[in-house]
Amino acid sequence: MCRFRLVVLPVLMATVLALPIRGFADVADAPDPVTERVVNVFTGGLGQIWERRALELKTDGGEETLTLAGISERAIVESLRIAGDGGPLTVTAVTLNREVLTPDALLRRHLGREVDVIKTHPTTGAERRVRAEVVSLAGGPVLRIDGRLETGVPGRLSFPDATFGLPPRPVLSARLSAGPGTKGLQLTYLSEGLAWSVDYTAQLATDGRHLDLTAWAGVRNDTGVDLSAQALRLVAGQINRRTGPRAQPRAEGMALMATKAVADAGGHALPAREAVGGAHVYTVPGLVRLRNNETRQLALLHAANVAVTETLISAGHPVVFGAQRGQPRPSHPDLRLAFDNRDLVPGGLPLPAGIIRVYRPTKGGPPLFAGEDRIIDTPGGERARLTIGRAFDVTVRRQQTAFQRLDAKGRNVEAAFRIEVRNGRDRPARVRLDETLPGDWRVTEENRPHERAGGQARWHLDVPAGGRAELTYRVRVLR
Question: Do residue 328 and residue 428 come from a single domain?
Fold first, then answer.
């Protein structure tokens, strides 16, 4: 009678299969065939993996099937390229077998065979083991127990310690032959499950005119395998794809637990940057281990004492083709920060798109979170702009003071407006008023000069501390 090893799992629920896997110990104990690996990670959730592997063939010049262990479970097989290292290599077929050892697959392999059903007494908790034959799996398991057919599973199942050739993870194999002098192979392929993003932290100085900027790259590995890279390259920029992201294979019975590893930038070199075509590549120095289901934070850049400007911006959309009704509601201007990234390093440094979080100093306490925004991909030498919130102590009120139709159809009109700005701060405030006007417009009267910015009329209003200032203007519009 063959010996059984207890595996407790409800068959109808997804559960982790905890079996010692015989027949694969030689794979686990074998030396790592990868001698060098470069991992390129793109921002859109795509990775490119290049490997140099040792090659040990059983035949001299003949064709044979080679199993390639450690390949991403989310590899795009159509992108796989294999070349000889030191000599020619001919590949005639590549196969990816995704059927792996799962509770369902194990049950299918036991169709027509006997397993053990472990029943637990509801009051005493005592367990009893009975033999059962797996009769059918159509629409659910059907078992023959003590001469009767049982639908469903009246307990837990225990299987013999045999895998029936089912591997613990997908297996990639290649049919190939090597020519003279071929000592290894070079393997490259694309894979889903790799992605990276950027998070910035900006610490404002006490004067509010400078900031320290730090960027961290968060690299995510959901490929199903651990990847140790001698070179990790983070690619910033848009690449064209005709094939969309593929659905991630469902891990039967496996609760994926995300972990995070943080690499301290202190004393370590920051990534080197290189422009490649329309993209920018950041190469992380040294060996980087990307474990499966792990997000690793890597220091990307640090710049100190960067000049920054703070602007209060109030955007308005005045009603010009009719009389305004109701009382005007007060609003608060947006608080916008801007800095030139040419100040980060000599010549500027391209900033990949990402979330930036801003902190302000406080008296006698830790810095205070002031807000966050998303900056777009910003080339070197360009200006980065972010809106982090609204000015609580600055209030703007807009009111239409006159309206007149200049023709019978109302296509040519004239309207007048008053904008009052109150400053509750203990220091002066400069507020930018952006009025978006429709149609063909012309300002005919104003108490302060404006500038034209596209479809907007723009004014700058200086408001004294604890005081108020007012803008009045009249506009003629033709639609």
Answer: yes
Length of the chain: 479
Domain match, 153 and 177 both: no
Residue 131: give the domain boundaries: 111-158
Same domain as 116, residue 106: no
Give the integer Cα–Cα distance in Å for 93 and 171: 14
**Per-residue model confidence as pLDDT tens digits over 178-222:** 888 788 888 999 999 999 999 999 999 998 899 999 999 999 999
Is the domain of 106 the same as that of 124?
no
**Percent helix / strand / coil, the chain, rounded to 5:** 5, 55, 40
Residue 189: C-alpha distances to residues 32, 72, 165, 432, 459 (Å): 18, 9, 26, 52, 55
Pairing of strands 468-478, 456-463: unpaired
Strands 456-463 and 451-453: what pairing?
antiparallel
What does the DSSP assignment read for 134-169? EEE-TTS-EEEETTEEEES-SSEEE-BS--TT--SS
- Paired with 207 in beta bridges are none
CB 419 within 8 A of CB 433: yes
DSSP string, 233-246: EEEES----SSPPP
| DSSP class of 263 | -
Q: Residues 422, 346: one domain?
A: no
Identify which of 338, 316, 320, 312 has the alpha carbon closest to the alpha carbon of residue 422: 312
Give the global pTM. Answer: 0.71
Domain count, the chain: 3
How far apart are the C-alpha atoms of 323 and 235, rounded to whole Å? 54
Whether residues 403 and 268 fall in one domain: no
Same domain, 341 and 354: yes
